């Protein structure tokens, strides 16, 4: 028997990339690869990249630079680049970086086994097509899962073309996977111990296939035996349809958590961003969701320093944040991306944008801390994901996706425990089991 080959994967970017990395590992598993967490003993290093901001894509080139000694030490080491930078700059990567053997885009990674064979013959391989076949039909079945919570990609691509964003170019147009395939994958995952599914899509609430929308898909997935919890991300405000809002009110498996990015609170900037909604439209959607599910925890993404953003525009964003009171949010300094319409426009002064980002993050941080503090004394349900560092402790997530450390010497991974929150730390909650 030949010795297993070792695969080291580094993943950047969104949850979709996390899911894709798992599936690429499974795909290369058919060629005898097993995972390793050290570059030194790897036979292949695969970097799954993100193109969303300049800093994210630059990481690829610094990583590749750092791989040089490993490649010199082991000339048989194969270096593969996947993900959104591969899609956007694949040919350029091969040209600039002689140590790269393989480049594969997010829609072609089911072809990895053949590409790997080519690389083993000493050739270089590139595939950044949007192939006609569905990659999911050509991937091996899901294998043993790492924990009770898993991602399930239900939709890919984006047709929204926000003026700042590369995703419609790197991931292509919106495609939804057929519901029966998703139900089969969910049953398979549940049989392997998965209790919580997070449905992924670049624009997940635009899910449409065979007469299903996202709400109907959620309702059917909630009937899969063993699946106790469902979440989804990321959504666009314009696709929050009535039946999905209703599901938040009457589907107990659907967790009271919604990531609904708004990017800015200024109508002028929203228009320039091509978001196709106003701040008031967004707030109306949130009002309806809160009416359906009063305890829902809301999160968002924000961009500061979008071209043309004035102090008044920024103030409007702060005002929106004060109105909504977010449980958590991500915020970014605008980064001009090649090929996007906004990149043609002059940037806001960099120091001004930095100062705005700090102010915005201070406000969001205060809201997050207050929200966590308010949990103290309340009871939550925690899905145990692993044993904690302290003996007798379990760690998991509440329905609001708060990380909770629970004193529970008899707790088991995959269990759903009733927990009383006793303290709030900066990034997690502590509690004891009450049921
Ligand atoms: N499909 C999701 C996620 C897009 S990428 C959505 O529509 O929300 C995640 C976040 O990155 C975006 O919500 C946005 O806040 C941020 N982002 C995207 N492009 C960016 C850019 N050019 N500069 C800074 N932040 C950006
Ligand atoms: Fe990018 Fe906008 Fe599509 Fe989100 S909705 S992926 S921000 S283009
Ligand atoms: Fe990044 Fe591509 Fe995801 S650009 S955020 S890895 S879709």
Total number of helices: 12
How many structurally independent domains?
4
The name of the CATH topology of the largest domain is Rossmann fold
Overall pLDDT: 95
Classified by CATH, the class of the largest domain is: Alpha Beta
Which ranges are low-confidence, i.e. pLDDT below 50, for 5 or more consecutive residues? none
Write the CATH homologous superfamily of the largest domain.
Answer: Methylthiotransferase, N-terminal domain
Distance between the termini: 50 Å
Ligands = S-adenosyl-L-homocysteine, iron/sulfur cluster, FE3-S4 cluster
Rg calc: 22 Å
Secondary structure category: alpha/beta
How much of the sequence lies in strands comes to 15-25%
Number of DSSP strand runs: 21
Task: Describe what this molecule looks like in 3D.
This protein is of the alpha/beta class. The chain folds into 4 domains: about 5-125, 3-Layer(aba) Sandwich (Rossmann fold); about 140-255, Transcription Regulator spoIIAA, CATH 3.30.750.210; about 290-375, Transcription Regulator spoIIAA; about 380-435, OB fold (Dihydrolipoamide Acetyltransferase, E2P) (Beta Barrel). β5 (about 100-105), α4 and β6 form a beta-alpha-beta unit. The chain is built from 12 helices and 21 strands. It has helices spanning about 15-30, 55-75, 85-95, 110-120, 165-170, 180-190, 215-220, 240-250, 265-270, 280-290, 310-325, 350-375, and strands at about 5-10, 35, 45-50, 80, 100-105, 125, 150-155, 155, 175, 195-200, 210, 210-215, 230-235, 255-260, 295-305, 330-335, 380-385, 395, 405, 415-425, 430-435. The mean pLDDT is about 95. The site of S-adenosyl-L-homocysteine has 18 residues, from β15. FE3-S4 cluster (F3S) binds near residues 13, 83 and 171.
